[in-house]
Amino acid sequence: MSRRRDLLGVVPFLVFVGIFLIIPTLVVAIGAFLDDQNRVTLDNVTALADGYIVQAFVRSIVLSAVTAVLGAVIGALLGYALVTARPDSVVRRVVTSACGVLAQFGGVTLAFAFMATIGLSGFVTLFLRDSLGIDIFAGGVWLYDLPGLVLVYTYFQIPLMVIVFLPALDGIRPQWREATESLGGSTWHYWRRVAGPLLAPAFIGSTLLLFANAFSAYATAAALVSQGSPIVPLQIRSALTSEVLLGRENLGKAMALGMVVVVAVVMALYATLQRRTSRWLD
């Protein structure tokens, strides 16, 4: 009886997962193999080999990889700086709280913040141009293209890295460094032989999580990029909402299925690395 009551508490979670994860995934997976008359076809899947779709996937992967690496490196350094502070210090509490907020500060709000700051009429852009004679858009309006997405995505990748990588940094015990020094090892030996190998799975796993986070992001890019569809989420939007080319909804589902496959592979690798990390964190 007690076991049934325990399982009853999981029911809301299972309902949530079923409605917002399993059912949409099934709709995408089934729709990718149907035409506009609901007949089974492989045309949508084979269309993923078209040049513009392949380029969109390549741009999405490059964007996700670059922002994941930048966010991982900068976030890891910031996390290490936090670890050197006392766990109950005001600085650590403030920074970790700020990272928790900024990691979720995306979408239209973040896009507007960057446009108001360094957009064509942003106050920083105007100040640099009028006061210092520096035109940050002299080589083109890069903010509304792939380079701008790299900058904006990195903004929310860094705090996310701090949140997910900080527990691994906290798991590094001071006694390990003391033991290394007592055996005549230097700081280089400590990081190369002890801390580095221990943190590597967590670092790589966190980087993979950042990759999946950037790869699946939509709202920020949709608000920032008004012309063209350089990445897959915007191509899916175009397929679903285009008033010029009709009947492409299932092609959008095929592209979404491709994204699901990529994210599933990345998250499987992330879960594997997390299990390895938990062995020594526990």
UniProtKB/TrEMBL annotation:
<dbReference type="InterPro" id="IPR000515">
    <property type="entry name" value="MetI-like"/>
</dbReference>
<keyword id="KW-0472">Membrane</keyword>
<comment type="similarity">
    <text>Belongs to the binding-protein-dependent transport system permease family. CysTW subfamily.</text>
</comment>
<feature type="transmembrane region" description="Helical">
    <location>
        <begin position="254"/>
        <end position="273"/>
    </location>
</feature>
<feature type="transmembrane region" description="Helical">
    <location>
        <begin position="61"/>
        <end position="83"/>
    </location>
</feature>
<keyword id="KW-1133">Transmembrane helix</keyword>
<keyword id="KW-1003">Cell membrane</keyword>
<dbReference type="InterPro" id="IPR035906">
    <property type="entry name" value="MetI-like_sf"/>
</dbReference>
<feature type="transmembrane region" description="Helical">
    <location>
        <begin position="148"/>
        <end position="169"/>
    </location>
</feature>
<feature type="transmembrane region" description="Helical">
    <location>
        <begin position="95"/>
        <end position="128"/>
    </location>
</feature>
<feature type="transmembrane region" description="Helical">
    <location>
        <begin position="198"/>
        <end position="225"/>
    </location>
</feature>
<feature type="domain" description="ABC transmembrane type-1">
    <location>
        <begin position="57"/>
        <end position="272"/>
    </location>
</feature>
<protein>
    <submittedName>
        <fullName>ABC transporter permease</fullName>
    </submittedName>
</protein>
<feature type="transmembrane region" description="Helical">
    <location>
        <begin position="7"/>
        <end position="34"/>
    </location>
</feature>
<keyword id="KW-0812">Transmembrane</keyword>
<keyword id="KW-0813">Transport</keyword>
